[in-house]
Structure formats: C-alpha cells, structure tokens
C-alpha cells in the first residue's frame, strides 16, 4: 500500500485507549462525503478522539497488448484534485468541529481498501452513501457497501438527508434478535447512548406462524429481555431503554421505528442466517431504506 499522511503526527509517548482510537472517514469532495465528514467530526469531538480523513486514489486497470493488465499511475490532475480535497477537508473540520485533531491520508489504493487499511484499528469507519463518479473516481455506493460488509470495526453509513442536526442525544434504535452480532450491536448502542446521554429503543420483529400473534410475540419479547440483560451486564450501562416488538420484516420494522432517531444500530447478520454471508438481509435492508445514520457492528 502506498500511503501518504498529509499532516505530520508526533507519536512519541502515545497510548491508545478505546475512546482515543481515531474515527476514520472517507472523503472524495462529493456532497455525500461532506455530510459523512461532518458527522464523523462531530463524533470525534464527542469522544475526544482524533479524526483521520482518507482519500483513496486509484486508476483503472488497463489492458497491455499481448499481456495481462496493468494499473495506471494517477495522473497529475487526479493528484492535484486529491490534494485539494484533503486541504478542504482540514479547513472544514476546523469549521464544524473546532479542537478536533484531524489528519488526512492520501492512499494509492481503491477507496474501500484504503478505508479498511487505515481504519483497521479505528473506533469507527464512516462513509457516505454515494460519492463522485468521473474525476473523483470514488463511487461511495459500492464503497459504503464494502465497508459495511468487511470492516473489522463498527462501520457507519451516513445518508445525505440523515444527519442529526447536532442532536447527538436523540434516540438510538437497535435491532435485536438474540444472535451474537445483534448482541454486539446492542452493546454498542448502550455504550454510545451513555456517551450521548441518549435513550435506546431495542426493536424486535417476528413473523406470524398462525392466526394468533401471542406465541411469536412472547418469544420475541423473551429474546429481547435476555439480550438486554446480557448487554447491561457486559457494558454496565444504565441508560433509559424501551422495547418495541412488532410483526413484520425486521428491516422494515427497524426503519419505521427510527424515523426521528439520531442513530440506527444493527449487527452484520442475524439469527439463522448463513455464516458465509458478510451482510444479512436485515442489515442490507436497513442500509438501503434508512434515512438516518446506520452503524453495522460485527461480533
């Protein structure tokens, strides 16, 4: 990997704790990545964490006569554009989140790979839903999907209309089904709510198997109660928490419950879904439908 840190850092005597781990965000100069940057900067300020902004610069592979394929070196025009994006990123962070320590990285790799590499030890990796085509060469629709599926740390996808307008204390909605990934999502939601002084809404969904809803509803309520007990024991969080159980497809129930939420949290995949799947049907559905920032958490 070719990586250029465009702002120097003094690493002498540095110690990394969970709260001091950086927030990593992808930037490409698009409106969507600007929204994601603002969200990430506000989160970094809330946590007292550094912010690392990453621009992946990569030229398409070109055919070589009578040979294989080659990757073209970035043109001077693309390098100049990348430099402009990162300069503008630092100025924007100073405006929207004064006091946040921001570093920028120019990485000569495809954007998703660049984010995953820089963010492998981060607190969060953040991306917008879409990005530039053409000159910027970053299609964040595909980038955000890859980050959500492959990130080893919680991944946040920020839709253009889904910022919280500075209301970090808005309700956090989390999907719960008793799976290990949903348990990890619930622990994240409780911890984040304590940080924000927010409420948590734990949402469970069930499918009707007969004419009455009682058995399925009671089973889902029991699953949520047990999951909350495990998560509270693991985190020590005592934030106000309510439970909502509805019949229907899990993604639709979660999205409907989160219309005014500040954050939605889901696990990568749920109970009963194939282990080889990187993203389950619920997390994919929420990512496609949500109008609020979505955090995807892996166990």
TrEMBL record:
InterPro entries: Rossmann-like_a/b/a_fold, Universal_stress_UspA, UspA. Residues 19-159, 172-298 form the UspA domain. It comes from the Bacteria. Pfam families: Usp. CDD domains: USP-like. PANTHER family: STRESS RESPONSE PROTEIN NHAX (PTHR46268), UNIVERSAL STRESS PROTEIN UP12 (PTHR46268:SF6). Belongs to the universal stress protein A family. This is Universal stress protein.
